[in-house]
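Box S2. Input/output pair 1.
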Amino acid sequence: MTERRRNTKAGRYGNKRRYTRASGDNPFGDYRVQRRAKSSQSSFAKTLTVMVIVFFTAIFAIILFANNQEFLDKKISQIPFLSNVLSKLSLNNSSKNRAEFNLPFGPKRRNILLLGVDSNGADSDLWVGTRTDTMILLNIDPRTKTVNAISIPRDSKVYLPNNMGTQKINAAHAIGGIDMTIKTVENSLGVKVDRYIMLHDEGVREIVKTLGGIDIYVEKNMKYDDYAGKLHINFTKGKHHLTEKDAVEYLRFRHDAMGDIGRTKRQQWFLRGLLADLQKPETIVKIPQLVSITNKYVKTNMSPYEMTQYAALAKGFDMDNIEIAMLPGGPNKNGYVSYWILDPEKTQEVVDRLIYREKPQGTKEHFTASIMSSNEDKQEAAQLQKALENAGIQVICSGTLNSIHSQFISHSKYVTVDYYASLKKQVPEVKSRQFVYEPLSYMCANSDFTVVLAGENQ
């Protein structure tokens, strides 16, 4: 670790007062009260997957349909610009005009901050006085064509620059705009933010409306009424076709034991429904409408050329090599204000692993595992346990979890994406699942990794 990074780390976590300062010492106490009064009217907080919706909506459509030249000729030839872009991105295109990933800044890794902002209640400027209810830091490596993503909980307690005191990180944008937001993330995590992309929450509603709704499996009964905020949520467990109004209600639901953390997971499932709809042939003709939505509801300092190059790069992404994590910590209530208190050591581990891509020193010879499954998957869980044990991996815990999202969750610094790739060859029963790094989250034992077997899949 360089000297600069050592100093940065000491500056971030050397003063514990930053995470324990009383709310009464905060010069923005009145601001917090005002924002809390408006919270029932503000839109839902979007997380990793919801932010990625807008950035990659057009890209996924391009990837899905670029090789179907007959479809392009029939459906999109009347839109010269899109037709030209899709043709250039076609994998079957051997022309010298084929788009290649050749960024002007070379093959260096870049950090892109994705932000979802709420409504400020005004029509004059969508971006002034808004909170960033979603913050995701992407690390993209053009050389290996891989991407890592860190979700930053909106309630994370941090110290704002310019002597603004301690606050929830989502208040940085409302107080000091995008410059303060970027500076807060850089100071808190010891990273450099190269580019940013902001999405207004109304954009998600418009995307769902344009697509004609989203098919999704609601994992539990959800009922909540907020008459003051005119929010009424009433979903039964099972498959649903969500309209734009339904989608907002589903994504805003947080009134269970998991709170915002549970909402974060649900928004990941929401993306799965969206991607399924993007694979429908009729989606391609809606690209002009989607582009129009992004023009109005997306703000970025990326040039059109950079966006095009990232679109070309996206074709080479290996979904099995995408690693995601949420900044580790725990909830804490200070008076009427709830914070997410970051764990300094584990947060540093996540940043080093996903942003700086540091490899663990040394090796680990023996690994332990946990298996979580639904009642319907007990037989599959037993087969997986036997296969893991035959491979020399001790299964120290198994339990019941009614999840609809299959995951491979790493709890150890030694359980990397490379280890997972090797394990899948040795134990095919592990299969390809979403790779998540959660150093503090143990579902039923302190194992090196947990395999989650989904029950009902979309």
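Box S3. Input/output pair 2.
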Amino acid sequence: MGLVVQKYGGSSVADAEGIKRVAKRIVEAKKNGNQVVVVVSAMGDTTDELIDLAEQVSPMPAGREFDMLLTAGERISMALLAMAIKNLGHEAQSFTGSQAGVITDSVHNKARIIDVTPGRIRTALDEGNIAIVAGFQGVSQDKKDITTLGRGGSDTTAVALAAALDAEVCEIYTDVDGVFTADPRVVKKARKIDWISFEDMLELASSGSKVLLHRCVEYARRYNIPIHVRSSFSGLQGTWVSSEPIQQGQGDQKVEQAIISGVAHDTSEAKITVVGVPDKPGEAAVIFRAIANAEINIDMVVQNVSAVTTGLTDISFTLPKAEGRKAIDALEKAKTAIGFESLRYDDQIGKISLVGAGMKTNPGVTASFFEALSDAGVNIELISTSEIRISVVTRADDVNEAVRAVHTAFGLDSDSDEAVVYGGTGR
């Protein structure tokens, strides 16, 4: 008997019919001889509706109470799913994140998992039950407060439980058939990837691919937990994310690693330019310490060559749009220490990234990437590279055209039917 952890996103359990469909799939896994642990997200747009409700009541809700509110969505889903499974003649028990032993730090709204102690889950499994766990939530180690894990929290919950329970696989069910070479909502001829390495998936996730979140993939890589990304709306094989290029379910058939894994894009970032920074040691350190002290994550960084006449330079960096106001405030407070002239803020940008472990041994990838953007008439504002990724910042209006142009240029377009998006949200 194997142990399988399954995670179902909000679009999979958006209504009563969806919950009953998911319950049948879970029962099928149980009938196949597996012990089954299920992590479930809130139904449909429940979390967004709770956020809107909170903002109507308070423009700046307290973090602790905000978390108490948001965790209600997953608790509703887990209870309804357990009821649906029992209606099919199988035993199921539902657990909140704290009951499941998901222990976090004390940072509300974006807590990180410290440990998982799934004693109650093991007991439920030993008694022959299917365990249903509310995703996206845990309990703080020190104050025992309810916490939420932030964006992609249910995926991270599932992988963390899979690691703690030594599961054979963590299945992430969404509304697309797997990981594609580009967002199928933008590129209709995007191809489904059969297998992708943890490293390439991490780059795609951090570059804007929404089917899996960066934290989830990083956790899986750390504990070597294979992830199977598939659709809850079909019975098709999905995408395997693992350390070894083996196509699961087909013996030892090797899957050749492609030179390019895919093209990702992100329009959720903004750009800040610090204008007129003295070009001397320590200035960049002061800038980014101020940003770090405000608990803001940054992405791309570019510093211009200083002007000979003035000895001043400009430093640009990208960050989440939601953190823009906080970053500007933090830099303004540090203006005297830094000595810059002004700040420029631009939230009409987009990032396009080409990802593939094969590019480091294949000359010409960079040239082809920039030629494709040039042919599409796309202007580049920032450039960032790693061994397996090239990212550029462009105008937000150019992103979709740029993604399609790059996807075609590298021969990633599919010759078969267009990719299917069953639920419409990608989650």
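Caption for Box S3: Residues 248-253 have pLDDT under 50 and may be disordered. The first strand starts at residue 3 and ends at 8.
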